[in-house]
Amino acid sequence: MTQNRTAVVTGAARGIGAATARRLSRDGYAVAVVDLDEAASEVVAASIREAGGSAVGVGVDVSDAEQVEAGVARIADELGPPVVLVNNAGIIRDNLIFRMTESDWDSVMNVHLRGAFLMTRACQAHMTAEKFGRIVNLSSSSAQGNRGQANYSAAKAGLQGFTKTLAIELGKFGVTANAVAPGFIQTDMTAATAERMGVSFEDFLAGAAKQTPVGRVGQPEDIAATISFLCSQEAGFVSGQVIYVAGGPLD
Ligand code: NAP
């Protein structure tokens, strides 16, 4: 069913995004690997092509409306109408509230919330025309509050409301929208957090694994597998949900 269907994954040059792009390619999608740096996106796209898939690397700052419009038009042109969108691009600018700058706040809102809005607005036109669409937004366990992350937590909670509204508005066009909220995943992002806290990544991972009921931290592929299901044809009755993928219960 997914043949000749195009998926867009933002922030896909590394981490969860790259694993998701690879997974959606294995699921049969042509994949647009979107990231800030087109050369870095192209490295992931090339590895997907080498594995027998179809992919292009596209440089887009998701917070820039013009770049988003141009990037999505190029994707539609080169790969076909994008009917799957994974809003994964993200940054952290952690600080306790008394030290948080306006720039820390605005940068995080711009990438996570404005970026998801702009990408979704550009792609939904293709989904509604095709009468099929799957939107997955990356939220986080931090949506429930996390010390040093007032900006990130607000953005990730905001994405949950955004997701539910998309599900309500777009359902009649065959489009579902869901949020995946990861717990601790081993990526450059959590490595940066360890560095900020002055802890070695190894110790940070061991500490996180101890606090996780399944006794390990998550890997990007754990998140990619959940996204894969939500993007599948058979997930058409799952919409407006927030799925915590955290190795234990969260609600
Ligand atoms: P990551 O390794 O830091 O990768 C994020 C990617 O997004 C990077 O390639 C980054 O590009 C790209 N990006 C940043 N700003 C962008 C923009 N304006 N336009 C396009 N691309 C942009 O992060 P990750 O750990 O894989 O996280 C992926 C998503 O999952 C994020 O939304 C994150 O908040 C969420 N998440 C992660 C965890 C975790 O434990 N890792 C937990 C919960 C939720 P550059 O490298 O050029 O900056």
From TrEMBL:
The keyword Metal-binding does not apply. Gene3D superfamilies: NAD(P)-binding Rossmann-like Domain. Residues 5-183 form the Ketoreductase domain. One of its GO terms (biological process) is monocarboxylic acid metabolic process. Keywords: NADP, Oxidoreductase. It holds the Pfam family adh_short_C2. GO terms for molecular function: oxidoreductase activity. Belongs to the short-chain dehydrogenases/reductases (SDR) family. This is 3-oxoacyl-ACP reductase.
